[in-house]
Amino acid sequence: MKPIRALIVDDEELCRKGIRLLLGEDAEFQILRECANGEEAIKEIKAQKPDVVFLDIKMPEISGFDILKRIDPDEWPLIVFITAYDKHAVKAFEVHALDYVLKPFSKIRFRMTLEKIKRTIWDRDASAIARSLMQMMSGLEATQAIAGPAEFLDRLLVSDRGSYVVVWSKDIEWIEGADYYVHLHCPGRSYLYRESLKNLEKKLSPDSFFRVHKSAIINLGFLEKIIADYKKELYALMKSGSKVPISRKRKKVLFTLCREKYGL
User: Fold this and answer.
1) How many C-beta atoms surround the C-beta of residue 227 within 10 A?
2) Which domains does the chain possess?
3) How many Cβ atoms are within 10 Å of 97's Cβ, its own excluded?
4) What distances in angstroms separate CA 230 from CA 105, 213, 219, 234, 249, one per listed residue?
5) What is the pLDDT of residues 165-184, one digit of tens each?
6) Suppose 212 and one of 90, 94, 246, 261 were both cysteines; which one would form an S-S bond, judging by CB atoms 3.0 to 4.6 Å apart?
């Protein structure tokens, strides 16, 4: 039998690597290419006509849904959504999509997806799959209108010395920006995570996390006190003893938030 030709589309390098490694363990799959953005994905889907696309939904500029809208439904491959969407949206995937993989995904869950792809490929009705995807996209919009905005990330999958570690958002004390990476400072140790501070800020709950500086976000649950040095520069003193600078622009907002939320 011919190998199942797969395309991986995700703006996060770590996620693409995880999918690539798991697909590499199954000889029935052939990876055509990895795409890090929507424009590249549209070009490759039209040119290579893959059998299946592992497609991230929330990407900068062009989302996974926008990619599908720019391709003729008659030419859609099988789509497996890679998503961090909330439980309400996941229900829509369960009803209409071929499958979805919720980040961070386990090896067992991913293998189940691969088996589902194989069964579908063996007895495929492309037009029915395209109709199902169009129904799913409409259903998702209706579901979100009722359920409200997607939930924020409660965990991140982080590469750590050749393995992967699940870091829960509630355990992150503060986050330090470093170009296209961030340092996740947790009690006892820190992790390097490939994501810009600006993008990660959008994915974290504003009820727990607050950007105090252009290069720093703090978890308000770890905030011990706000202190000043001899130059009257302000710092957030965290429970670990770390001092995180507070910009003058963010000072007033932080004080207002602390008064409303904690009565400080």
Assistant:
1) 12
2) 4-147 (3.40.50.2300), 155-262 (2.40.50.1020)
3) 22
4) 48, 19, 25, 10, 19
5) 889 999 999 999 987 899 99
6) 246
